[in-house]
Structure formats: C-alpha cells, structure tokens
Amino acid sequence: MTPRPRVLHWFRTDLRVHDAPALQAGLALKPEVWYPVWCWDPEYVYSHRVGVNRFNFLIESMNDLSQSLTRINDKSKLLVITHLVYELDTGGYAQEPEVIEKNGGKPTTTITQWQKAASKLGSVPRPTAAPKKLIPPGDLHLGSLSREDHPVNREHDLNEKTRISPVTCFDTLTGPKGDFAVPTLEELGYPNPTTTIRGGEKEGRARLFAFNKDDNGNRAALFEKPKTSPTIPGPFKASRTNNGHEDTLQEDGDEFEDLPEGAQIDVTKPSTTLMSPYLKFGCVGVRECYWSWHDILVNAPKSAKKPENLLGQLEFRDMYYAAELAVGGTAFARVQGNPICRPKDEQHPRAEEWLAAWMRSCGNYAKRDGCTI
Asked: Where does the Photolyase/cryptochrome alpha/beta domain lie (predicted)?
C-alpha cells in the first residue's frame, strides 16, 4: 500500500483560509498528517525596523488564522517555529512571473505596459471557499533546543530602542511555553500597541464587505484615485451592526475641512478602503477583492474607470510586484543601484534645502512627505 503524503504547509504571506490556493493544493493530496507552520524569522525581528503597531497587526493576524484552523479541526492550530535550516540555493525562490516574460523580461514601469502584458495571460480565477475539513498534525513532541545550542544573531538589533524588555520568543524551538504558540508583544520585548486597526482575516473580510455595502455599493463603484486619500478621514458616526459589533460606520460627509462642530471622526475609516495591510499579510485574498469589486462595477449604473478605480489600483499593485521581480528584490528595496529609481543628487547645491523641506512636510508633495516623516 502506497504511504499517504505527510504535508507541511508553510504559511508566509497567506494568513487566511478563504481563497488560499496553496492550502487547497496541500489538502488535495489527501495527506496522512498536515502541519500548518509559520516561521518566526529573527531577521525580521532584529534586522528590520518594525514598529509595535505593525507587529501587533501581524500577531493578531496569526492568532486569527490559528483560531480559524482550530474551528475547522479542533486538533489543528498554527504552529510557530523559531528555527529554520535550509540548503543554500543559488537560484531564486520564485520563477520569473509570466507577466515579466510577456513584457520582454523588463520591469513593468507603467500601467499600460502591465495591462498589455497581463492581457495575454487570461482572466483572473474566481476565489475559492475555505476548506470544510482539515487533517490534524502528527506528533508534536519535539526535544527543546535552547538558544545556547542554536543562538540567534542579535548583534545589530535595529529595534533595540523600541524594546522595553528582552526578546524571549527564540529561547526554544517550540516557544517559551513549549506549545508552538504565536508570539506575544511581551515576548518580543515590545510595549502595548497604540493602533485601533485590528489584524486578521475575520477583520479584513468584515471591512471589505462593509466597504462594498456602503451606500448600496456606490462607494466602491465610484471610488477613484486621486480623489481619495488614506490620510484624510471623513466625519463618521458609529452604528451598531446586527452582530453587535460597532465596526460598521456610516459616513456623514466627504470634506475633512468642513467638519461640523462636535462631529465624531474615526481614523480607522479613511476615504480609501484600508485593505492594504490585509492584502500585504495575505489576510484577504486579492482575488476576493478583485471579483467583489468587479461584480459591483459591472452592475453599477455609474462607475469610475481604470486605472483610477479599484480594479486599477489592484493592477498598479501587481505592476510594482512584477517590476520588483524583474529588477531584483535587493536592488528594488533601495534607491542607489535601482535602475527605475530617480534619486535626488546628494551633492546637489540645493540638497540640504530639499531635505529641510521634506522634514517640514512642505516640499512639492507635502502630504506624502508628512506621512513619511
């Protein structure tokens, strides 16, 4: 009898159970055991400047995923490991995407380039439902590997000034409590968060559905860049939804400058969708956004057009992903050495003046400058 597969699913930027192609592919193998794993990378913890609110969003998203897995199978949960060993690979982890190939191997630097290349790839598949069944993991009794046995390099902790206590989440392979649990901010040495934006698939999908229902779908249909801004909220008032949560907000007006006295402002509902962090961490599938907005746009009596509308914004997102892959992630992440970046000349006679203007948020793009300070 042929042995059944033993599958380890590495969750990375797909922290969801809805519209999860890799999850569906793994379960389609009909495995004997199925291990849902997240690797808590010390590179991200020590070598990237990450604020407490961003870490809080990620941790909440991981906990939400773990709870979703447990709801489907009470023996399953997200298993967080802190040590990953792999063979050095000289090749890239991802093959060159087809859209790059259709663009002659060059970065897609305009939306027209991306649309022309992507049009040759066929239509976007519809999103898939969450699985109704999960295979439980196998034996989880592993020997505890201590930090002394496998030390984590923390010579350059870029977040040291933010921490208020030592990092303990890497002390053992199975976590401080030996249960592979999602780390806490306390285990990262971080203070309490200040954000009001909650992470997770449940929260992200609730926001998407609420946005799509707003004004009977007209808000999504008429959404248009650059007429909306993630930095400008409108006056809103909270209204209790049927499930008892006060997450759905009704809009009173559009102009931030003309607020009536006593108006309540909720900064968690800017004039944009606020879906960016949920797409970034994979809490919501991009296909679910695409098709929900597509269906609204084709049925609306009046709607915005590409590339300014919501579908156009998703295309811009994919355009830059494709450009990054064509340029190379290392070069794309910096100014110097990035072939599609136009940096300011640091030796220019007006360089100090430009820097001072940026710091005062009064350059050519004052609002953008203010957001980056």
From this structure: 5-152
CATH 1.25.40.80 describes domain 201-330: yes
Q: Is 345 annotated as a binding residue?
A: no
| Structure-block tokens of residue 323 | 């450009």
Domain ranges within the chain, ordered by starting residue: 201-330, 344-373
62 is in an annotated binding site: no
Is 274 annotated for ligand binding?
yes
Tens digit of each residue's pLDDT (9 = 90 or more) over 190-228: 999 998 889 999 999 999 999 999 999 999 999 998 877
Closest Cα partner for 6 from 37, 42, 49, 52? 37
Q: Is 276 annotated as a binding residue?
A: yes
Q: Which of 25-29, 150-154, 188-192 has the lowest mean pLDDT?
A: 150-154
Is 86 annotated as ligand-binding?
no
List residues bridging with 11 in a β-sheet. Answer: 38
> Residue 18, Cβ neighbours under 10 Å: how many?
19
* 174 annotated binding-site participant: no
Note the pLDDT tens digit of each residue in 304-315: 999 999 999 999
Q: Which residue has the higher pLDDT, 280 or 98?
A: 280
Look up residue 266 and give its DSSP letter.
Answer: E
The reply to whether 84 sits in an annotated binding site is no
Pairing mode of beta strands 33-39, 6-11:
parallel
